[in-house]
Amino acid sequence: MATVRPNEVLRALMKQAKLPAEDLAEAVNTAEERRFGRPGNATGRHVRRWLSGRTALPQNHYLISLMDVFGLPADQLGFTLSDKRSRELAGFHTAPTLLVETTAKEDHVLRRSFMIAATGNLLSFAFAPLPTSGRIGASDVERIRESIDQLHAVDDLYGGEQLAAIAEAFVKQIEEAMRNCLYGPRVEKALYQVIAQLRASAGWFAFDSGDQDRAGTNFDAGLRAALLADDKQLLARIWAYMSRQSWALGKATETITIARRALDTTRNNRDHRLSALLHGRLALGYAASGQSALCGTALARAETALDRVGPAPADPWLAFVGPGEVMAAAAMSYMDLGQPDRAAHQEEQAMQFLDPGFRRNRFATAVHLSECYLADGQVEQAVSMADQALDLYPSVHCPRWAIHLEEVKDKVAGYSLPEAAAFVTRYDTVTAAS
Q1: pLDDT over 90 for what percent of the chain?
Q2: Euclidean distance between CA atoms 165 and 205, whole angstroms
Q3: pLDDT score at 123
Q4: Is the CB of residue 423 less than 8 Å from the CB of residue 387?
Q5: Domain spans of the chain?
Q6: Separation of CA 122 from chain center
Q7: Cα–Cα distance measured from residue 155 to residue 398, given in angstroms and rounded to the nearest whole number
Q8: Residues 301-310: pLDDT tens digits?
Q9: Domain 8-89 has CATH 3.10.450
Q10: Helices (H), 123-270
């Protein structure tokens, strides 16, 4: 009896591309239709048999389609090819199809892939497939949650530009599936939860890109879905985003009111990171309205909440909340209170605590620290920090903070310093190429 050998190479390729078995089957079928002009019939069961080794060598049309999906020759897919098979496949050159955006013609399958340009590379983003008929189960919802986590991982690295449209498109797909499929009460609640999460994310991505109307529309829709899901934590999450937006729009009283509502709603059941974030939002509102004593109290409560954070991993959307985030809130507060020296000190500390994985936050902190230095008259330090932000500029797509960096450039251009002139020249070169 032949030995069954699992295909670990194919498994690794799928993991790298973040493709579960059903997604790979769909990609194979799409590749087969493009290559041969007829739709394929691969299923998740086929893929699992290839992975387990129960099907030691797929038929040629599957192999050729796998070559196209991964852009690799057949002998690099983990299968053992006979001499005959090698000769049969030799004439087929790979035509990568995995990183191709699907067309409107394919939207009926309720799955779309998106490409995000960053650091000269293309990042593939594929949503979990949703059923077009039949029944939606808990496993379908779990795959949706995994896709949402991927969205925030991209935002942490590269910023939210382009991501709002992706999140909104996924909401439409979920809503379409809900219209056409059956599901029980528990799954219904879970579906409204993921819709609220996606709307919250879309709102934040739009806010980060400077589109405030779009952000508000998504936040409002997210609140409605969170209410239908009866999820107070989700309501607080969206209010946290809305409070930050209100502060950015100069609405100090609204900033405070929204943050207080979020704290009151989750008073008896709240993640300590969320507490730290919301008290930081309160501090921003108090500072913007000139209430320095209340601002200090809110910042102290934010630090206390952070001290209580345990070893358990945070929800992906809250993973950025740490000492760096609280110190950044303090820096922004002190700037509003007219204390740029204290603000600069807080941002200096924040830079030390930021996780390198949160590249977008590092960019924002560097830009704000350069603003603090300028306001405190430390022009050379401002230029140096702005240079660090410019290092991240090509790989971080965050229009909101990019505008602030441009304002820093305009201000330092007025100084007759060699460092300032060199920065302005470099800024023009880097931004023109990005």
Answers
A1: 50
A2: 9
A3: 38
A4: yes
A5: 8-89, 104-230, 232-354
A6: 15
A7: 9
A8: 999 999 999 8
A9: no
A10: 138-158, 163-180, 185-208, 212-229, 232-248, 252-265
Of 10, 26, 33, 16, which is closest to residue 128 (Cα–Cα)? 26
For the whole model, what pTM was predicted?
0.70
Strands 113-118 and 121-126: antiparallel
Kindly state the average pLDDT of the residues 302-321: 87
Could you tell me which residues are beta bridge partners of residue 125? 114
Of 184, 204, 202, nearest in space to 194 by CA: 202
Kindly give the interhelix angle for 399-412 and 418-433, rounded to the nearest 10 degrees.
Answer: 150
Tokens representing 278 are 């919301």
Please indicate whether the domains covering 8-89 and 232-354 agree at the CATH topology level. no
For residues 420 and 409, what is the distance between their CA atoms, to the nearest angstrom?
8
Closest CA to 397 of 217, 154, 200: 154
Say if residues 314 and 273 touch (Cβ distance below 8 Å). Answer: yes
| Mean pLDDT to the nearest integer, 236-257 | 97
User: What backbone torsions phi and psi does residue 116 show, to the nearest 5 degrees?
Assistant: -120, 120
Residue 308 CA from chain centroid, whole number: 26
Q: Which class is domain 232-354?
A: mainly alpha
CB 164 within 8 A of CB 218: yes
Quickly state the pLDDT bin for 410 (edges 50, 70, 90). very high
Provide the mean pLDDT of the chain. 85
Residues 6+ apart with CB under 8 A from 430: 390, 393, 394
Give the largest CA-CA distance in the chain: 82
Is 127's pLDDT higher than 90? no
Alpha-carbon span 356 to 431, nearest angstrom: 23
CA angle centred on 381, ends 377 and 383, rounded to 5°: 100
Distance CA 409, CA 393 (A): 13
The whole-number average pLDDT for the span 126-154 is 77
In this structure, which long-range contacts are made by residues 421-424, counting pairs with CB atoms below 8 Å and at least 24 apart in sequence? 423/383, 423/386, 423/387, 423/390
With tokens 């320095």, the residue in question is 292
Q: In three state form, how does the secondary structure of 249-293 look?
A: CCCHHHHHHHHHHHHHHCCCCCCHHHHHHHHHHHHHHHHHCCCHH
The three-state secondary structure class of 417 is coil
